Amino acid sequence: MIKAVFFDIDGTLIAHDLKVVPKDTRKALESLKKKGIKCVVASGRHLLEFAFLDIADLKFDAYVLLNGQLCLDDKYEVIYDNPISTKDRDKLIEAFNTHLLPLAIVEKDRLYINFNNEDVKKAQDSISSPLFKVGEYKGDAIYQITAFGNEDKLRELVKDLKSVKLTRWNPLGVDIIPSIGGKAKGIEAVLKTFAIKEDEFMAFGDGENDIDMLKMAKIGVAMGNSSKALKEVADYVSLDASRGGISEALRHFEII
Fold it and tell me: N or C end of the chain, less CB within 10 A?
């Protein structure tokens, strides 16, 4: 029996071509809630970004943010957090300060970048998001760093770091998170909070950073607009986000 459903945001809840949460998806969320099924966000996004997305009015039972590095309950209290280690953080801050690449730092209450360029603009445009505000690092814990550039430069950036990994969400953008992290790690914490077992949840995603989540879920659904890598690990490939993919899959598995 499915007791919780986890949703990626970009390309899943929000259709890239429409830049909104489709009406059928909103109705599906309402149907899940009426049946007492927990609805949880599982995204690389920060809660601060919700304000400029067509998701700000929606309430969820929990939030798996920053690819699982920061998890909040429905009152936005911390359930679980997993910051980048001090040693690797210091090396990344050196790259941040020398403007080696555009690097966006994500803290619990702050989100800022060292500088913006065309790579950042293209990546942010692809997810209907504005450019980051430029800021300075002041010593707080870092949960995620979003790096922008080509594959070779991004791999070079982390090649000597021992406790982080890259999780890609765009050809020009990757999230740098703890190597023991990922959406699945955050989901574990949320499931424990709700006393829900791993074989009692369903997950929807569209990008490579959703692979661990879909593998972990009892039912892992890749949207029709998903990357090839995600479709290969999914239990089911639904329609595109803009064509009712979420509601279609929920009906297919008789969840609603």
Answer: N
